[in-house]
Amino acid sequence: MEIISQQNIWLVPFFPFLASIILGLVLFLFPNSIRSLRQFCFLISILFLMIAMFLSFYIFYQQITGSPIQQFFWSWVITKSITLELGYLIDPLTSIMLILVTTIGVIVMIYSDTYMFYDQGYIRFFCYLSLFTASMLGLVISPNLIQIYMFWELVGMCSYLLIGFWFTRPSAANACQKAFITNRVGDFGLLLGILGIYWITGSFEFQSLSERFFELISDNKINIILSNLCAVSLFLGPVAKSAQFPLHIWLPDAMEGPTPISALIHAATMVAAGIFLVARMYPFFEIFPLIMNLIAWIGALTALLGAIFAITQRDLKKGLAYSTMSQLGYMMLSLGIGSYKAALFHLITHAYSKALLFLGSGSVIHSLEPVLGYHPKKSQNISLMGGLRKHMPITAITFLFGTLSLCGIPPFACFWSKDEILTDSWFYFPFLGFLAIFTAGLTAFYMFRLYLLTFEGEFRGNLSNEYQFYSLISIFGNPLFGSNTPVVKLQTTNKTEILYPQESKNSMLFSLIILVIPTLLIGFIGGPPIFKENSSDLLSNWLRLSINSLNNIHSENLIEFFQNSILSLSIVFLGIVSAFFLYGPQIKTTSKVDKFPFIMLNSNSFFVSMYNWSYYRGYIDNLYYLIFIKGIRFTAIYLFLIDQWFIDGIVNGIGIFSFFGGEIMKYTEGGRISSYLFFLVFCMLFLFFLYSYI
């Protein structure tokens, strides 16, 4: 086992990569036997990923029991001027991320077997899923920037394939292209940063390039502006990959892919890759205070914007997508203020909670599709849901656990990590702390809005044929019809058979129940010690080996932790109460229509404008469309006209002039020398008089 855990860690990404190759060969060699080979392909995928998971657990066990950091390299390209190496790096950060990716990957695969069973692309889905997981695992174990960039691009390619999995649907095709192009912007910056760092330091390895940069800056041997430009360029990659403002626009549209992929992207793979890279390069970024502040403020702004946009979303998955954007902003904020452990802690707790929420939303969508239809505007529209707790109790309670965790309610996992970020940001700079705490209140509001409109009240899907339900819920959640037309009465009057969603199958529920366990317990690995001063939590002790500069901005015991959490918990409970007041189950004897009459009567009110600004994502997508798409089209048309009429006009004009000049001159070609002499003398006299006149 010693050989397997150290020298053969490459087996961890190799097994899921091998599974993807086998499934690809099955698709290519046996296209007519796909239906009969589905279970075989599923078993290959899940078995190989479980082997990788067990290896990850053993590596993690070695790291926490005192095994030293290991690096292995193989020479790839050797010349006189450059040497490129491939290999792997084993440290606590690597081992934690390996467990995170493999455990969530296994759960998503078990869930996907039922969710995708009747899809014609079942085997293709698991082929992409295995390759996606292998790419992320390869990225995690990479020891240098060259190798991490290779797997970085593989992760992007797999996300393109999976977001556009149902590519015959135009919205899915557009979404995968949007994600791909947006990430190309960030990846180009990342490549420039990598090349700039190598040009300055002569190294791609994480530790050596950080040490070299520190020496050059300390000795004033490098231009500080150039150094900051390299750091900013490098940071562009995580900005796009982790959906940070202003390159966040691809994330909500990525919900066009199958829901299990949404869970994997938002929990453990693509968006986690950006946070991981900043964490891996943390000693490098720490050298530049300006860049650290930039990271913190971009994270804070992303967290706030994600929460504001999530408030008004009617699509269940898009609401969760903006929630992911907001939580990733928290992680980036934490890294920017130097709270390295809190950022990784929140990455872990959020991963399991968000996987639970997305798989829960998939359970809802999977059950509603036979009732409402298979288009996302029907099956994912929370305006057409409600009352699902009665019909899907296990899905409802697990979704509620994920909601409580993401809101930061103790003792759920995200409470410990999020409140550590809130406290650290407050001690770092109070205004950042204020933004973070305010965002926490918005998080509680929009998450309970999603839960209440989905699971509480009465089922509204049966009214979708008689009402346009976009208008049945006002901007503050109040139904626009009173208690005189209850759903039950409408059903009795019509005397028609009404369909209701049913609870999902056991394999899907098994995945949800398993994810409840880390959602409840994983937070205790990083929570404060109980009544002990000057002691570290488990996660800090594990991470201290992989980064020497690890320190806590504010260390505290359990009692101090709860004391500092009073303000944030108060804001969170205020958000929950507000959500219950506006979106909770309606009292049959009382109509809530008249609570905000001034808002409904005045369409030009400030609140309506703010609602529209939030619902249309701050008009950022429209701005980008105007600047980049229309701007590029206009520029292309303008340049085409210049090319057609100016450049081509000059060339064509010269040709036409030469043609007609030749036609005229041929009539002067009589063969008589006297004629030639006459024209020669005439032209010389003409030029002489012209010169004399000028």
From TrEMBL:
Pfam family, one: Proton_antipo_C
A GO CC term attached to the entry: chloroplast thylakoid membrane
Domain NADH-Ubiquinone oxidoreductase (complex I) chain 5 N-terminal: 76-126
Source organism (scientific name): Rhaphidolejeunea foliicola
Entry annotated with the keyword NADP: yes
UniProt domain NADH:quinone oxidoreductase/Mrp antiporter transmembrane: residue ranges: 142-443
EC number(s) stated in the UniProt entry for this protein: 7.1.1.-
Protein name from the UniProt record: NAD(P)H-quinone oxidoreductase subunit 5, chloroplastic
Tree of life domain: Eukaryota
